[in-house]
């Protein structure tokens, strides 16, 4: 009755316990990508017919039950990427107090993908043109936008949007042939007005949606130097919607007057990241690096869906590379970011294990599915099911963590020192914050990070006199300690 060579679940990119809603959603996404009216690629009409057959079978409860009975035992799918999980401990201890466990998840493109052509881009560059952007900042942004336009490949789509208290589409989303005329439009941008980020985001998203395609890297890059007022929740709600559309956001804050907490949340909600551009002369390098990274995208989105386990708390998630950033844990779905062709994605997970979870001889502490979107593949990637376990023993010796875990934790401790200091300042505990920053500076000096250590000691002086940090110093500490995750290992921390 059924073709025993066809795995309908893998064809739709779902697991065998998929709900009716999961099946409908997977079919809709595949049909949008493969429909013959939109797709003339050789062999993909046949794939579309296979997808239809899979949906007709799995959406019918009776036919699905018959199909499931004929399926062989489930095996790990043949995945178009490589992965590894590194554990901080070989065993957990049977204790009457909580204990911490760390994992590093590494995902990377297969060797052959590193030599293949990268997917076309559909990018909207959303530029703050408020009054505060006048002078060197705006001149550098315009010159860099022109350079981006000149660097585009024939298959790439770029739109340019400016905003202040209203938005204007400078370059509509399209394949751009008359580049000299478009360059002149960029050069005519003049700063004026206040900063309303939602205006720019909304206009940029509309341009992306004009050419949205699952076979492209669909991304929005926001450049701003100021706070937005009153529209933060609208921006965050829009970002949540973009995750469902497969659109990422990267934010770039220029100078020191922008809201780093807001831009971090806005970006990481879509799997993206925020970057601090301390000086106008850094704009060109950082923006061009971002476009080059987008052009090297292998997988656009890594989504981890997990089920909470009794007695186990997933307390934090931090992306170590390629763009170091804390990843919010909100609910049961986490967006981990992209995989580049030449750079693996590494994420560290921190779990708090309660005493009640280690009563038996083994603990399953994470039951999850990893879903990855790869635009170059006509069919969805099958989800990877993982059930992470550790044996439990009466021994209290934790052992020495692997070098990868030790290095990540040493960097994470530095980042958390400045986070704790900022939190103490918010509570009015200046003395505690000062001690945290002094320890952080000592650690940085011991590792040869003299410039960042000096910045922090200047902030200590400011803190003791003004009872607050400077906007510039605060951002240099935050994003400077993040950048350390990409640096080679040095000396151990000073405790």
CATH superfamily of the largest domain: von Willebrand factor, type A domain
CATH architecture assignment name of the largest domain: 3-Layer(aba) Sandwich
- Which oligomerization state do the chains in this entry correspond to? single chain
Rg (CA only): 25 Å
User: What is the percent of helical residues?
Assistant: 25-40%
The tally of structural domains comes to 4
Secondary-structure element sequence? HHHHEEEEHEEHHEHEHEHEEEEEEEHHHH
- List low-pLDDT spans: 491-495
The CATH class label of the largest domain is: Alpha Beta
Biggest sheet features? 6 strands, mixed
CATH topology of the largest domain: Rossmann fold
Structural class assignment: alpha/beta
Shape: flat
Tell me, rounded to a whole number, the average pLDDT: 91
Strand order, biggest sheet?
Answer: 6-5-4-7-8-9
- Beta-strand content bin: 15-25%
> What's the N-to-C terminus distance?
67 Å
Helices, by number, come to 14
């Amino acid at each position: 009755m059924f073709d025993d060579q066809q795995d309908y679940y893998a064809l739709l990119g779902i697991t065998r316990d998929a709900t009716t809603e999961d099946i409908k959603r997977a079919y809709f996404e595949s049909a949008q990508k493969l429909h013959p009216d939109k797709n003339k690629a050789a062999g993909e009409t046949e794939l579309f017919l296979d997808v239809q057959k899979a949906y007709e079978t799995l959406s019918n409860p009776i036919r699905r039950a018959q199909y499931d009975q004929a399926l062989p035992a489930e095996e790990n799918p043949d995945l178009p990427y490589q992965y590894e999980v590194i554990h901080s401990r070989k065993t957990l201890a049977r204790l009457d107090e909580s204990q911490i466990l760390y994992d590093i998840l590494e995902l990377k493109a297969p060797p052959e993908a590193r030599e293949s052509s990268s997917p076309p881009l559909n990018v909207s560059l959303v530029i703050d043109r408020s009054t505060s952007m006048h002078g060197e900042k705006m001149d550098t942004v315009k010159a860099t936008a022109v350079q981006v336009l000149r660097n585009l490949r024939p298959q790439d789509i770029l739109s340019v949007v400016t905003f202040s208290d209203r938005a204007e589409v400078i370059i509509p989303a399209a394949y751009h042939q008359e580049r000299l005329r478009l360059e002149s439009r960029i050069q005519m941008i003049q700063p004026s007005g206040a900063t309303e980020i939602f205006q720019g985001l909304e206009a940029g998203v509309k341009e992306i949606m004009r050419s949205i395609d699952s076979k492209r890297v669909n991304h929005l890059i926001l450049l701003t130097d100021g706070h937005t007022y009153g529209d933060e929740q609208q921006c965050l709600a829009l970002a949540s919607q973009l995750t469902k559309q497969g659109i990422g956001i990267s934010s770039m804050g220029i100078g020191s007057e922008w809201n780093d907490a807001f831009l971090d949340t806005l970006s990481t909600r879509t799997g993206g990241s925020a970057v601090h551009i301390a000086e106008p002369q850094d704009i060109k390098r950082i923006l061009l690096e971002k476009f080059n990274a987008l052009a090297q995208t292998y997988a656009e989105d890594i989504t981890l869906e997990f089920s909470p386990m009794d007695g186990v708390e997933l307390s934090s998630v931090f992306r170590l590379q390629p763009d170091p950033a804390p990843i919010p844990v909100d609910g049961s779905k986490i967006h981990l970011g992209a995989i580049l062709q030449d750079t693996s994605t590494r994420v560290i997970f921190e779990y708090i294990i309660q005493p009640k979870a280690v009563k038996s001889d083994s603990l399953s502490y994470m039951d999850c599915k990893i879903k990855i979107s790869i635009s170059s593949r006509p069919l969805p990637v099958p989800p990877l099911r993982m059930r992470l376990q550790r044996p439990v023993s009466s021994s209290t010796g934790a052992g020495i963590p692997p070098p990868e875990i030790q290095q990540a934790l040493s960097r994470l401790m530095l980042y958390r020192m400045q986070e704790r200091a900022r939190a103490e300042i918010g509570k009015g505990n200046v003395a505690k914050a000062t001690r945290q920053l002094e320890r952080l500076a000592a650690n940085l000096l011991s590792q040869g990070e003299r410039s960042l250590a000096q910045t922090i000691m200047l902030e200590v002086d400011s803190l003791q006199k003004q009872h607050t940090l400077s906007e510039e110093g605060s951002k240099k500490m935050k994003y400077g300690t993040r950048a350390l995750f990409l640096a080679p290992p040095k000396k151990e921390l000073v405790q």
